[in-house]
Structure formats: structure tokens, C-alpha cells
Amino acid sequence: MGLAQGRTGTIIGRVVDQTGAVIPEAVIQLWEPTTGVHRMVRTDHTGEFRFEQLGPGRYRILVSAEGFASQSRDIVLTAGAHLEPTFALSPQPLAEEVVVLAGTIVDTPEVLRRIPGSVEILDRWAFEASRIFTVNEALRKVTGVFAREEEGFGLRPNIGIRGLNPTRSTKVLLLEDGIPLTYAPYGDNASYYHPPVDRFESIEVIKGSGQILYGPMTIGGVINYITPNPPEKPRGAVTLIGGNRDYLNGHFTYGGTWGGTGLLFDYLRKQGEGARENTRTGLNDANLKIVTALGSKHALTIKGNYYGENSQVTYSGLRLDEYLANPRQNPFLNDRFLGDRYGASVTHAYVVRNEVVLTTNFYGSMFFRDWWRQSS
Q1: Cα–Cα distance between 332 and 274 in angstroms, integer?
Q2: Exposed e or buried b for every residue in 44-54, given b needs 16+ CB within 10 A?
Q3: For the chain: N or C, fewer Cβ within 10 A?
């Protein structure tokens, strides 16, 4: 027992403003993505916070306080180490804060404290640490969430929460930046379209009774996918991943901020043959996001998206004799899915007063789907 305790580490830090004055009641969140550790504390009257008995590893600390810009930092903790970081927060104009938080559900520490039930957040760091391939793999990290595979690429995930039927994710409200992404959210919300996980910055999952605030079909819960905001300085990135069976995952992003207006362009090409014969998937996903602060109390976000899919996928399985003859075969040569989706949204946020923000969303989409399916 003494050896185990001796190898644990401690983080004791302070939160101050730009003048060095302490900030009490700041919210400190700590994540360790590989193990799923998530802790939250508040600073005391001296601005101090403390995390004890931490195993060695890489942690991310997010510090937030009302009226200040949030700050995050990655920290590597070795066995038995004692770290004393100091976080100096700077004031942030309300309009800029609204631009960042308008599409999130858990937008402030106060909202997190008030939400009944449970909230879990997966960030980009967790995606990269686990080499997430599909959204199913990401959601399996969340307690009580079951994501059933269908074709291996996560094109149409079947998400169930706390034992509910996962087929087509009909018992879960799926949002992107706080806006429903299914094509009939108030009617038949069966998910025949799902955006690729590659372009998300984080995922919020709400379970319990708190999800009723955010829209229809929330029996199981709410899953909100957060897209990144344009960076302050122009920059771009290209990622190319290849493999056998004609697998290709190409991702291009470029964005920046010019004259108070930020733009971010994102394009993804993903393709490959499936695990069975006569199966193949190909999709293109393009997005444009524009964010701007209109004065000190108004913020505007404009988004446009195109998603196209051409896949040779089947709905049918194999009989026992077919499986014994060749478990990888697919006798349904003519099964094919063709889909095109065009979506756009405009989000306006207005700061009524410091504790009240009015957010208005205008959104629409067109979804064209053709699916030829055979049966055994």
C-alpha cells in the first residue's frame, strides 16, 4: 500500500487574474483520456486547487471562471511528482465568449452544475490518444452508451443509451453545434445520415432528466457534436491515411481570422472496401464555417455542408450454410446506397445581460437517398 501511494502524484495549483489577484470559485476540470479519468474541483478563497493520488500519465486541465477566458493546459505527471502550476486568466469580451460557446450545451461551469443527470465530454485530445476511427469507437468511451456496428465505417451508427434499442439511433437526439442533424427530428428521426467523426472537436453526452430541454426524441439522451471554430491565425493541415483493401482517409482543413471574421474550411474523403466481399464505401464531406462578433453583444455563426456517399453495402446477413461455406462472402451484388445531403444554418447570439444569452437558430437541409436492397 505504501509503495502504491508513493508512486502517485499531486497537482496543487493557483488561479489568478492578469494583476495577480486570486480568483475564488473558479472551476478546474482534469481529464486523462486513456483511462477516462475526469475530476472537477473549485478554487478556494486563496485561489488554490488540489488534485491528489494521481497516477503517472498525461493530463489536460481546463480552468474557467465567470467573466474570464477559459484556459487549458496539458501536463505530464511522472510517478510521485508534485506539480504547482499557476493559471493567469484574462478577461474576455462577452461577444467573443458567445461565439465560442453558442453551439455547446455545457457552455459554462454554472450550467454544468445545474444539469440534472450526468454529463460526459470527449475532446479532440481523447480522439487522438485512442486513434478513433469511427464515431462508434468514440461513444463506447461514454458510460452507459452502446454503439452497434453495421458496416464498419460508422456511416449509420446505431446508438443506444442505458439499454434502449439502438437501431437507427431513434431514441437519442443527435445534434451538431446544438442543431438537430437528422432529417426529420420531430417525426421519424431514424439516422440514415451521420457526419464523420474526423471533423469534430468534442462530443457532449447528456443522460438522465436534463436532456428534455434540448429537443425531441430524448428518451435515451442527447449527443451534441461540436465543430472547431476558426483559428486566430491562418493555418491549415493535411492528413492522409492509407491501408489495405483500398482504404484511404484524406482530411484537409484551412482557416483563419481576418478583420474580426473567422473562416474554417474542412474537406474529408474516406473510402475503402469492407470486411466482406462485394462491399465498398466512398464518401465526400465538405464544410464551411464563418463566425464573427457583431459589436460587443452580438455574435453570428454561418455554416454550410455537403455530404455525398456512394456505397455498395448490404442489409442482409448470411444463412448458416452460407457462413460455413465462406464467412466473408456477400451474395447480394446489386445492393447499393446513394446519398446526398445539403445543409446550412445561421446562429445568432445576443447577450441580454451577463447571465442571460439569447440564441436563435435558423437551419435547414435537403437529403436525397436511394437504397437498393436484396434479401436472401
Answers
A1: 14
A2: eeebebebeeb
A3: N
Cβ neighbours of residue 324 closer than 8 Å, sequence gap 6 or more: none
* pLDDT tens digits along 301-358: 999 999 999 999 888 888 999 999 999 999 888 899 999 999 999 999 888 876 677 8
Q: Residue 205: beta bridge partners?
A: 120, 223
pTM: 0.76
Other Cβ atoms within 10 Å of 4 Cβ, number: 9
Residue type, 61: I
Helix residue spans in 303-347 (DSSP H): 320-325
User: DSSP per residue over 2-52, as a string?
Assistant: HHHHHT-EEEEEEEEETTS-B-TT-EEEEEETTTTEEEEEE--TTSEEEEE
Tell which residue, 68, 66, 56, 71, has the closest CA to residue 13.
71
Dihedral angle computed from the Cα positions of residues 229, 351, 208 and 51, in that order, rounded to the nearest 10 degrees: 70
CATH number for the segment(s) 7-92 = 2.60.40.1120
Question: For domain 118-226, which CATH number applies: 3.40.630.40, 1.10.3720.10, 2.40.50.100, 2.170.130.10?
Answer: 2.170.130.10
Domain spans in the chain, listed from the N-terminal domain onward: 7-92, 118-226, 235-372
